[in-house]
UniProtKB/TrEMBL annotation:
Signal peptide segment: none
Protein name per UniProt: Aminotransferase
Organism of this sequence: Pacificitalea manganoxidans
GO terms classed as biological process: amino acid metabolic process
Reactions catalysed: L-aspartate + 2-oxoglutarate = oxaloacetate + L-glutamate
Family statement drawn from the similarity comment of this UniProt entry: Belongs to the class-I pyridoxal-phosphate-dependent aminotransferase family.
Pfam families noted in UniProt: Aminotran_1_2 (PF00155)
This protein's UniProt keywords: Aminotransferase, Pyridoxal phosphate, Transferase
Alphabetized SUPFAM superfamilies for the sequence: PLP-dependent transferases
Residue stretches making up the Aminotransferase class I/classII large domain: 33-371
Taxonomy, superkingdom: Bacteria
EC numbers on record: 2.6.1.-
Cofactors: pyridoxal 5'-phosphate
Length: 391
């Protein structure tokens, strides 16, 4: 079969998930592995949400649902957005999508023509470059550094922006845990206005902020008409398998995105939408329950790091991850992650999975129960100390 160049070039350097796949193969083979790899909350979807989903399905909401999203859910998402950001938002500025990943794809499809330059921040969530390529765009990384807290600078943004069409940002950030400051968000807005960019703001971790305050670029002056915001029930309500998210965008863009959905996913199952609506109607209570363990484990990790010198880290200000610099061990992130998995049964993601700017790092997901996390993180610190002392 002859495959298209578009699909065969999605991930020319690999998808960055090799170690994750290897760890899962070990688990299937019966080997004990502590998986600190992907952002899968260890708390599953709350039973009350599942009950709402089951009631909806049993009640007959199993046929085709409204492609843009059922009206009540679009209204609830709009209300949530307005309450959290202070920006007036209507249901006509909302489309429901098959998860945050589908929202990222749809937003870039709406904003890019084939060959257009599309900026994204590095380190980046692993699907970003492939998503851009899938829409015909050309991904261009804007590198950030630990010295700036992994926040893009105005100078770096401006230097990359000439001739670009879009800028993809993510705060709170995966993989770094950075929560963008007001100054950073203002630099993003200024660059977008100066170079006529569409900002695609991935805000799926907006309920997981440990330090600082989440600020959406859409909330800054003059940004409503040039911003698309990505949201998801996956991280907020531990509904990863339900595959439901959304895009907030100007009404003209939403109208075109509805047409795209009509010709791709044909919407999200009605019973899943009803469950999402139920969850949103509970306010912050359920979301807080999902977020609380990540805050605890962050504090556990920060405490352990303070007792050693082999690993350095910027304590994450948000999200469910921590980046650790392992270069004092004499290894890069990939070699350290391989050693940790092969000798100790602990799986973490090599930093290079998220771009070359993170090659000397590993990403640790705070996604296993506290006792297992504490044991695994202590082992990780001991391994690093032993390697550093042996150099």
């Amino acid at each position: 079969m002859r495959l298209s160049q578009r699909i065969t070039t999605l991930s020319p350097d690999g998808d960055g998930w090799d170690l994750f796949y290897r760890a899962r193969a070990m688990v299937r083979a019966g080997q004990p592995v502590t998986e600190l790899t992907i952002g899968e909350p260890d708390t599953r979807t709350d039973p009350v949400i599942l009950d709402a989903m089951a009631r909806s399905a049993a009640g007959g909401h199993t046929g085709y649902a409204d492609v843009p999203g059922i009206p009540a859910l679009r209204a609830a998402i709009a209300a949530r957005t307005e309450a959290r950001t202070g920006v007036p938002t209507t249901p006509d500025q909302v489309i429901v999508t098959s998860g945050g990943q589908a929202a990222l794809f749809a937003a870039h499809m709406a904003a890019l023509d084939p060959g257009d330059r599309a900026l994204h921040i590095e380190p980046y969530y692993t699907t970003y470059p492939g998503t851009i390529r899938a829409t015909g765009g050309v991904p261009v990384a804007v590198k950030t550094r630990p010295e700036t807290g992994f926040q893009p600078t105005a100078a770096d943004l401006d230097a990359a922006a000439a001739g670009a069409r879009t800028l993809l940002v993510n705060t709170p950030n995966n993989p770094t845990g950075a929560v963008y400051s007001r100054a950073t968000c203002e630099a993003i807005a200024a660059t977008a206005k100066r170079h006529d960019l569409t900002v695609i703001s991935d805000e799926v971790y907006d309920t997981q902020v440990w330090q600082g305050e989440h600020l959406s670029p859409r909330a800054l002056p003059g940004m409503v008409e040039r911003t698309m915001v990505i949201g998801s029930m996956s991280k907020i309500y531990a509904m990863t398998g339900s595959r439901i998210g959304w895009i907030i965008a100007p009404e003209t863009a939403i109208a075109r995105l509805i047409s795209l959905s009509l010709n791709t996913t044909y919407g999200v199952p009605g019973f899943v939408q009803d469950a999402a609506l139920f969850a949103l109607e509970q306010g912050d209570r359920l979301a807080a329950q999902v977020a609380a363990p990540f805050r605890r484990r962050r504090e556990l990790a920060v405490g352990m790091l303070s007792q050693q010198q082999a690993l350095t880290a910027m304590p994450p200000s948000g999200a469910m991850y921590m980046m650790l610099d392992v270069r004092a061990t004499g290894l890069d992130g990939a070699a350290f992650a391989d050693l940790l998995l092969d000798r100790h049964g602990i799986a973490v993601m090599p930093g290079a999975s998220f771009g070359r700017a993170a090659a000397g790092q590993i990403r640790v997901a705070l996604t296993v129960p506290d006792d297992r996390f504490a044991t695994a993180f202590a082992t990780l610190c001991d391994v690093a100390a032993g390697l550093a002392e042996g150099r």
